[in-house]
From TrEMBL:
Originating organism: Listeria fleischmannii 1991
Protein name per its UniProtKB record: Glycosyltransferase 2-like domain-containing protein
CDD domains the record matches: Glyco_tranf_GTA_type (cd00761)
Cellular localization per UniProt: Cell membrane
Lineage: Bacteria, Bacillati, Bacillota, Bacilli, Bacillales
InterPro entries, per the entry: Glycerophosphate_synth, Glyco_trans_2-like, Nucleotide-diphossugar_trans, TagF_C, TagF_N, Teichoic_Acid_Biosynth
Pfam name, any one: Glycos_transf_2
GO cellular component terms given for this protein: plasma membrane
Amino acid sequence: MNDSIKISIIIPVYHVADIIEDTLKSIQNQKFENYEVLLIDDGSKDETAEVIERCIAQDGRFHYIYKENQGPAAARNDGLKLAKGDFILFVDSDDLLAPNALTVMYQAAQSENADLVTGSTKRFNQKQEWFIDAHITENVIKPGAKTFEENPELVYSIGPCAKLYKKELVEDIRFLEEIKYGEDQPFVLETLIRAQKIYTVDEVVYFYRLRDGENKSLTQSISQNPIRILDSILQFLDVAKKLFNVYGSSQNVQLSYYNRVVKIEISDAIGGVFTGNKAKRQEFFQKLGNWLYALPEAIFYQMNAVPFVFVNRTIGFALGMDKHTKEAYQAILQYIFKHSSEESLKVVREANEYYRAALSIVEQGSFRNANRLAIRQFIRQKFDTNKLVMRIGRQLVFRFGKLLPVKKGSIVFGTERSDVLSGNLKAIYDCMSEQEKKRVVLLLKKSPSWKHTLHIFATLARAETIVIDDYYNKIYSLSFKKEVKVIQTWHAAGAFKKFGFSALFASDSETEEFEKRAHSSYTDVLVSSENLISEYSEAFRVAPSKVKPIGVPRTDLFFNQEKIKTLKENLYQKYPVLKKKKAILYAPTFRGGAGHRMNFKMQLDALKMKKALGDEYVLILKFHPVVKNVAMNLAEQDDFILDLSDEKDINPIMLVSDALITDYSSVIFEYSLLNRPMYFFADDLKNYHDERGFYFPYEEMVPGAIYEESDTLIRDIQNEQFDYEKLNRFKEKFVDALDGKSTERFITEYVRNKE
C-alpha cells in the first residue's frame, strides 16, 4: 500500500459534463491533500471526458478511466480494485464535498480508530439547501461513537457516499452488479454490520444535489418498470437476509432495516405500480405478499411500517385494482391484521376511515369503503374542493353580504393559527368589558367545512371592525366598505427578519401578487415603536400614517407583576427543576423552505454545555412550532435538557429563564423587556441572511454578542459577560411603545370610540 495516499476517492461518472466541474472543485479546494481521485467513466457519450481532462490536467492526484457502460455498481467496483489509499470515500459525480470534509473525517478516523466515519449531509438545489428529513427524524446525525447493533437508525443513511471506510473493512466487499435498483444497499449494509466502531462527526461533510425533475423521473422509472424495480428490491432484501444470518444480526437491527425498506422503497414502488401498467398489478402484489409471508413471525409482528404502508398509503388506490389484484391485496391485509402486534396496528386504528375500510376488506371482502376513500382523494386532487368553497365565499357570499348594512359596533377577531384565542387577540379580548365582548365574533381555526367557511365570509361582509394578528387568508383580495376598519396587530414585536413586501426577493418569499392580496385591505397596522413606522409601511405597503405605534397588546404581560407571579408558579409546579437551578432558554427559529422547516439540526453543542454548566443550569429548549424533528448530540431525556417545545405559550418560559440563547428569532424584542442577558448563536449567518434578509445589519442590531461556535458562548455564560448598555439602546429603538398599556390604548382607539 502506498503510504503517501491516505484516501482514495472513487467517483463513477456518466453524462455529467454540465456539473462535474463543481464536484471536482469541491475536492481540489480541500485543505487535506493526501488523496487520489479515481474517475470511472461508465461510457459517457457527451463532453464529460473533455471537461474532466481540462479540470485535472495539472493535478496528478486525479486519474480518469474510461470503460464501456455497465452501471454505477461496476464503476465503483473498478475503483475499489484500483484504490491505493488507507481509506475509501465514494462521491457521486453531481454532488459536493463540504469544504473541510476530508480533514474532519480523516482526523476522526485516526483519533477514534474508527472503521467507518460518517457526518451530517445536506441536499441542495438551485435555490436552497436542507438537511435530509430522515436523518433528523431518526437522529442519524447525532455525533459520537456508535455500533450498528446499538444504533440501528443508521439504516436511514444507507447510501455509499458521505462515509469514510477503512480499506480493510471493504477489502472483500463489492457492489452487486446484477441488481439495477438499490444496488448499493447490500454493500453499505455489510459495512455497517462489520464495522467494529462507527464514528459520526458533528459537521456537514457532504451535499447531495437534487437535480430538476429527479424525483419525477424516478417515479416514472418505477411506473414504467414496476416488476423490475420490485424484483431489484426483493433481490437486495434477500441479500440482506443472508447477511443477517451470516453475521448473526440482532432482531432489532433486522427490524429497523426492514421497516426502512417498507417505508421508502416499497412504498414508492406501490405508488409507481398504480400510475403504470395495470396488467402488472396482480403479479406485483403477489410477489410482495410472498416476501411478507416469508419474514420471521417475530420480526413481522413488530413491523409498524407494514400496516402504515399497506393500509394508510395503499388503500386509496383501490379504484385501480382489478379483481385479481384485489384478491392479492386482501390476502396481504388479512395476514397483517392476523400477525401484527397491537402496537403496530395502532397507527392504522388512529386513522379511523382507513381502518374501517381495511376491516371491511379483511372481514367481508368488501371494497366499498375503500372505493369511497379513493373517490374522495381523487376529487380532492382533481378539483380542490377547498378552493371551490373559498371562491363561492368570496365571489357570492361576501358580495351579497356587502349589500346589507354594516352592523354598528360589531368586531371580528380572525385567526387561522389556533382553535383558541392567543397572542394579541387574547390580550385584547381578556381586557374588554363583558358588554364589549358581546359585540365580538370569534372566527377561529376549525376543521374545514363548507358551512363554516361560508359563515366566515358572511360575518366579514357585515363587520365594522376586523382584528387580525397574522396573515389571514379569508380577507385576501376582499374589498371592504369605507367605514370598515381592518386592523393588523401583527404577532411579532420589533423588526428583525424581512417579511411581506420587504422580503419579495428572498429565496423563500411569496410573489408580489400574493402579498398584494394578503395586505391590501388593511386600514391600520400596529407597531412596537415609532422608529419602525417606515419598516412596517414597507412590509405591508401601507401609508406611514396607517402605522400606529400603539404597541403590541400581548406584551403587557411583562409589566403585570401579579400575572408574572402566577405564570411562574404554574411552571415551577409542572417542572420543579426550574426552582432548583438557573435556566438558559434556547429558542432558535426554523431553517429552510416550507417543505423542510419541520427538521432542525442543533449546532449548539449541548454536550459541552452540560459538562461546563450542568451543575448550575438547566437548558430549556423551545423550538419554533413548525419544527417537529430535532437532532442534537445529547438525548432529550438527559437531565440537563428540558424540552418545552410543546408548551404553546413561550411567555411563561421566558419569565422563568435567566438568559436567552437564540439566533434570528423575534423573541428578542419581548425578552429585552426582562433586562436579562441574550446570546446570539448564529453559525449560519451568511446563509440565513441570503435566505430571509434583515431590516438592519445583524451585527449592529442584536443586543448581545454573536457566536459561531459553542466554546466562547459557554465561557461568556460562565463569566456572566453581557453588555447592558447595548440592551438599553436596543430597547429605545425597537420597543419604546411597549410599556404595559398597549391593550388599553387599543381598546380606547378601536373599541370604545366605536360604541
